């Protein structure tokens, strides 16, 4: 009996530890802890004096918002709101520290100067940790034609002390719907035959939706302008409904030809909205519509993407 106790005591002592290890090896673990809020971190961008139309520069805030294991939403917000100019303001994440002249690493979505609160968003296919540790900085420029005029700049990631905070409270099984945008012939110089595309509504929280749109081109449009887009009231061919929601423009030099906007409306609100999307040649040439499509209540039926899958580690946004 004493021999039995001696030989089994170490095993009994190790049993709770072994069970604990096994309990932590759940093969269904997605890499995201559902009980923990998603993370976000913000960085200050300082106004930069320049020789352009916005000579005093603009201060801004960049925020990295965790979406899932391999995606991050990067939002930009000008502290003074929209600039009231007839251009869009491109932005990029550059390599190295501010002032080093590092090349562009990641295209961000331009900020529409004509309205929309001076904000933009971009879904970046990198993990939150990757961006939060990245050796880089952000530049916001006057326009695609005047990239040399930097209006805001700031270090990010490994080069800055960001302000962390609680991120998205993502819904379970987020939904996604895509609508087609048809090429629209116009009198413009950039795309007179129009360019087809699509717009996707991705549910994030109970009251927020990521609206992503893209143009179906082989690379960038090649224009030295950004292409604004809006959700309008009514139906195509109707009474010409006014702008309801400003979306982020697409940079004419961006090979992905896509952009996103974080909209403070629920997914159900947008997918039942009486509206349509217009994509324009430029902020200065809004009359030249290059793509157009009905959405929500006016669409014959969007393509159900089966869910954005963001916070739970499923599909992408």
From TrEMBL:
Name one process (GO BP) from the record.
Answer: superoxide metabolic process
Instruction: Please tell me whether the keyword Signal is annotated for this protein.
Output: yes
Region annotation Disordered: residue ranges? 297-317
User: Its domain of life?
Assistant: Bacteria
Give UniProt keywords alphabetically. Answer: Signal
The answer to whether the entry has keyword Signal is yes
InterPro entries linked:
SOD-like_Cu/Zn_dom_sf
Where does this protein have compositionally biased stretches of type Gly residues?
302-317
Residues of the signal peptide: 1-23
Q: Which GO terms describe its molecular function?
A: metal ion binding
Name the family.
Belongs to the Cu-Zn superoxide dismutase family.
- Protein name per Swiss-Prot or TrEMBL: CHRD domain-containing protein
